[in-house]
From TrEMBL, chain A:
PROSITE patterns with a match to the protein in the record: ABC_TRANSPORTER_1, ABC_TRANSPORTER_2
Annotated protein name in UniProt: ABC transporter ATP-binding protein
Pfam families attached to this UniProt entry: ABC_tran, oligo_HPY
Organism: Cryobacterium fucosi
GO biological process, one term: transmembrane transport
TrEMBL record, chain B:
BP GO terms, sorted: transmembrane transport
Topological type in the membrane: Multi-pass membrane protein
A GO CC term attached to the entry: plasma membrane
Keyword Membrane: yes
Species in which this protein is naturally found: Cryobacterium fucosi
Cellular compartments annotated: Cell membrane
Keywords recorded for this protein, A-Z: Cell membrane, Membrane, Transmembrane, Transmembrane helix, Transport
Residue runs in coiled coils: none
InterPro entries documented for this protein: BP-dependent_transpt_permease, MetI-like, MetI-like_sf, OppC_N
Name this polypeptide is given: ABC transporter permease
Lineage: Bacteria, Bacillati, Actinomycetota, Actinomycetes, Micrococcales
Transmembrane residue ranges: 61-81, 126-149, 161-181, 237-259, 295-316
Entries under CDD domains matching the protein: TM_PBP2 (cd06261)
Glycosyltransferase recorded as keyword: no
Length: 581, 328
């Protein structure tokens, strides 16, 4: 492969994708997923492909080393790797390229390690398959790979199994395997989207250091524009199977030209929170106007409008939610009679004023969702009290409990699980009315239409079923159902976390509008501190069941008191980006 | 949507897109569409509607459905298909005879009309099949749904009871029961004997389905609404778990028909006074070499019926399993 360079000045690109087209075979014929894209990656460079789900970004990554699923195939174009067209290689030749010259880090660390084999076995297998070492050297090499990946006690860890590793550690193993043969190119497909933000940061820092040392070029696939800009020099923005904008990251962020990129920049929570923060102004004094393409999707604008609205409505009538010393203890079944107590929620106290939004932020396992369940009386607290509108909820039974449920409704995370697939949208939204025997058939139908209108869905959807809807639309239906009984309080448990950024921005806007219109009190549970910046008034940061910091959003962002809060703030992508509003 | 970006597209050169320069695609080539716009499709769709759309286009569905319809008609109105009495007027002189005028399939050893006996035996087979699946499905749904949904000690008790019944092969159990109940051999007793030991597989399938569904967010949302646990089971969890039960029911109907025939063949099934394919096959076995048609013809009737139900089950399973659909 070492042809002499014709002109010494020009560095040849490592990877050149020319007019690549990929289609998927379905019952309705060939559906194009990638529509003639061009990407150039120089040796040692980091390039990020950004896009929403369905934009074709992962398909592009998979097409490079032909890892497309059964129904997908490359229908045109070239993938030149060091001048060789990878689309023309046969399976045997491709195996030579995969792993040895191009490493791959998959998205989901949970399912990409085989649970029945030890970590050592799997790393050694990769090393043998790539012909890096043979015989006794394999084990030594495996230990080195894991040490490089940041597992200090690698020699002991070799004999352990994937279930004994945390998600972050598994991703380290996968990164180690991907880099084990010192490939010239590493493809990382959303390598950290399944991980907590602080873990994400550490892993990506490590990945950057490693690839810089080895001199590996990285093709980084992500949905998060902030993350992409922070981690890559070059950015490629994909939309509906096409490249809409590409170039140096900084330039694209500061001066997005294509209206789609402008939308993405406007709607990314990480960027919005940075923009608000680096403006050094109060939200109410921003005087900001969004680019026209991003109308209704700009989070800074939404936050500003919300701040103005909140300032003009006086808080009245005591706290909506008052939680005092709430504790929940689970018994963990261990080996014989070794039941341990696990404090999922540990002495948690907070107050939410009427008409405001309290955000409960924490990483997985911090107990934030358990708090939601305790508040909703889906589970009973071990000790402590929850008062809703001044009434202690612990003792409520029967009729009184039903009345409590009327005042407080939840919206959950998973848009694909939150609606009963066999009940049509109208019946789903009317269910609360039925359960609480509100109105007759005709008035319920009228209320369903009204609710659909409130969440900006056409009333024709009432007779349709959830599987016709997108994730964002399902969440709208879930919100409509939650609002059916005219509750005072809505508990949003990661309600926007599973959505694409633009849809997320839309729903956040909708939530803010509904709050202003109906005077709702929100308890907003999330792992994403960036979203908190634009939607909440107060924030409680939770860690291992305890609240470590609790204050107004402005104070927490401007002047965090606890190390953990600082760590979370630093983990918001784009820390080193200076962005004016 | 919006026409021109604020900056205005610059010297974008299509196709070149060298990585170091800022490339912007022309807007007319990458038009923006609204975010998350609602498209109300022409047709409604949910699991059952989609499954119906799916089976409707498959010949195998129509073939098995037509066969089942014919078999059901024969069972309900045997008089429509033959006027020849199956039991009376049997002339021993026709013993094991070939086809004759008005007797298209020939005669049994007793000189009875084979065609008429097959027609009149249909209702027995189908009755046994239907009684058994009513029994197994009822027991299976009761045990499976309560065990899966309520969990804990309810699950422990119900599942162990199921395991006990599951550990005994139902055909062996039926042989034993029918030998003990030799005084009371009827369609009802044989159905009971088969059904009582055949339900645990339905219960197990349903239980695992319920375990999957009951953790969905919509169940939690209904709890937060104040719907009672039992109503949630009935309104939300069971309807979303029932699809595999329907598949297993169609296939176990076929299995029950086979089981009845097997028991009758072994001589512990229905009394010889009850007309059934199994009994006829039993009685024909001694003359297999001299008059094979007396055994083969009722066997064909049995096979066709079983085939119809099993292929219907297969078609329905494919239609109800989205994964199987994606693979095709």
């Amino acid at each position: 492969m070492s042809e002499p360079l014709s002109t010494s000045a020009a560095v040849k690109p490592l990877l050149e994708i020319k007019n690549l087209q990929v289609g998927f075979q379905t019952q309705n014929g060939l559906v194009p997923a990638v529509n003639g894209i061009d990407i150039t990656l120089m040796p040692g460079q980091t390039l990020a492909i950004v896009g929403e789900s369905g934009s074709g970004k992962s398909t592009t990554a998979h097409a490079i080393i032909n890892l497309l699923p059964g129904s997908g195939r490359i229908t045109g174009g070239e993938v030149l790797f060091e001048g060789r067209d990878l689309t023309q290689l046969n399976e045997k030749q491709l195996e030579e390229v995969r792993g040895r010259m191009i490493g791959f880090v998959p998205q989901d660390p949970m399912s990409n390690l085989n649970p029945v084999w030890s970590i050592g076995f799997q790393v050694e297998e990769a090393i043998r398959a790539n012909g890096i070492a043979t015989g006794k050297e394999v084990k030594q090499h495996a230990i080195r790979v894991l040490k490089e990946a940041g597992l200090a006690d690698a020699d002991k860890r070799l004999r352990q199994f994937p279930h004994q590793f945390s998600g972050g550690m598994r991703q380290r193993v996968l990164i180690g395997m991907g880099l084990s043969s010192r490939p010239k190119l590493l493809i990382a497909d959303e390598p950290t989207s399944a991980l907590d933000v602080t873990v994400q940061r550490v892993i990506l820092d490590h990945l950057a250091t490693l690839t810089r040392e080895i001199g590996t070029a990285v093709l980084f696939i992500t949905h998060d524009l902030g993350l992409a800009a922070e981690r890559a020099e070059q950015l490629v923005v994909m939309y509906k199977g096409k490249v809409v904008e590409s170039g140096p990251s900084r330039e694209i962020l500061e001066n997005p030209m294509h209206p789609y990129t402008q939308r993405l920049v406007a709607a990314a929570p990480s960027l919005a929170s940075r923009r608000i923060q680096s403006s050094n102004k109060n939200l109410s004094d921003l005087g900001y106007s969004a680019p026209r393409a991003a109308e209704g999707l700009d989070l800074v604008e939404a936050a500003e409008a919300r701040a103005a609205q909140q300032a003009s409505t006086p808080v009245a009538g005591g706290p909506a939610i008052k939680v005092d010393a709430l504790t929940k203890i689970y018994k963990i079944r261990g080996a014989k009679r070794d039941a341990r107590d696990f404090k999922a929620v540990d002495d948690v106290s907070f107050t939410v004023e009427r008409g405001t939004t309290m955000a409960l932020v924490g990483e997985s396992g911090s107990g934030k969702s358990t708090v939601a369940k305790l508040l909703l009386r889906l589970e009973d607290a071990s000790s402590g009290t929850v008062a809703i509108g001044g009434t202690d909820t612990a003792a409520l039974r029967g009729r009184a409990l039903l009345d409590l449920r009327r005042k407080m409704q939840p919206v959950f995370q998973d848009p694909y699980g939150s609606l009963d697939p066999l009940r049509n949208i109208g019946n789903t939204i009317a269910e609360p009315l039925q359960v609480h025997r509100v109105g007759d058939r005709a008035s319920r139908r009228a209320r369903v239409d009204e609710l659909l209108d409130q969440v900006a869905l056409p009333s024709a959807l009432a007779t349709r079923y959830p599987n016709e809807l997108s994730g964002g639309q399902r969440q709208r239906v879930a919100i409509a159902r939650a609002l059916a009984l005219k509750p005072d309080i809505v508990i949003l448990d990661e309600a926007v976390s599973a959505l694409d950024v633009l849809v997320q921005a839309q729903i956040l806007r909708l939530l803010a509008d509904l709050q202003a219109e109906l005077g709702l009190t929100y308890l907003f549970i999330t792992h994403d501190l960036a979203v908190v910046r634009v939607i909440a008034d107060h924030v409680c940061v939770m860690q291992r069941g305890k609240i470590v910091e609790s204050s107004t959003v402005d104070k927490v962002f401007d002047n965090p008191q606890q190390d953990y809060t600082k760590e979370l703030l630093n983990a918001i992508p784009g820390a080193n980006l200076k962005l004016g509003v | 949507m919006s026409s021109n970006p604020t900056g205005g597209p610059t010297d974008a050169t299509r196709g070149a897109a060298p990585s170091s320069t800022h490339y912007v695609a022309a807007l007319d080539e990458t038009p923006l569409v609204g975010v998350d716009t609602v498209k109300v499709a022409e047709k409604r769709s949910n699991l059952w509607i989609d499954a119906w759309q799916d089976v409707r286009g498959r010949p195998m569905f129509w073939i098995s459905a037509a066969l089942i319809l014919v078999v059901a008609l024969v069972a309900l109105f045997p008089g429509l298909f033959t006027q020849t009495p199956p039991n009376n007027n049997c002339i021993l002189g026709n013993s094991n005879g070939g086809p004759a005028d008005g007797h298209p399939l020939g005669f049994t050893k007793q000189g009875c009309d084979i065609y008429s006996r097959i027609v009149h035996g249909t209702s027995t087979s189908l009755s046994v099949g239907f009684i058994v699946i009513v029994l197994t499905t009822t027991l299976g749904i009761l045990f499976g749904s309560f065990a899966g949904f309520y969990g804990g000690w309810v699950d422990a008790v119900l599942s162990r009871v199921g395991d006990i019944f599951f550990s005994i092969p139902y055909i062996l159990a039926a042989v034993v029961i029918m030998s003990v109940l030799s005084q009371y051999r009827s369609v009802w007793s044989i159905s009971l004997a088969i059904g009582v030991f055949a339900w645990p597989s339905t219960a197990r399938v349903l239980r695992s389905e319920i375990l999957r569904v009951k953790n969905a967010d919509f169940v939690m949302a209904s709890t937060a609404l104040g719907l009672s646990r039992f109503k949630i089971l009935l309104k939300h969890v069971l309807p979303n778990s029932i699809a595999p039960v329907i598949v297993i029911t169609t296939i176990s109907l076929a299995a029950a028909i086979v089981a009845e025939a097997s028991l009758s063949f072994l001589g512990v099934g229905l009394g010889s006074n009850i007309m059934s394919w199994g009994n006829d096959i039993n009685q024909a076995q001694n003359d297999l070499r001299t008059a094979p048609q007396t055994l083969i013809l009722p066997s064909i009737a049995l096979s066709v019926t079983v085939f119809a139900f099993i292929s219907l089950g297969e078609v329905v399973r494919d239609a109800l399993d989205p994964k199987a659909r994606a693979l095709r």
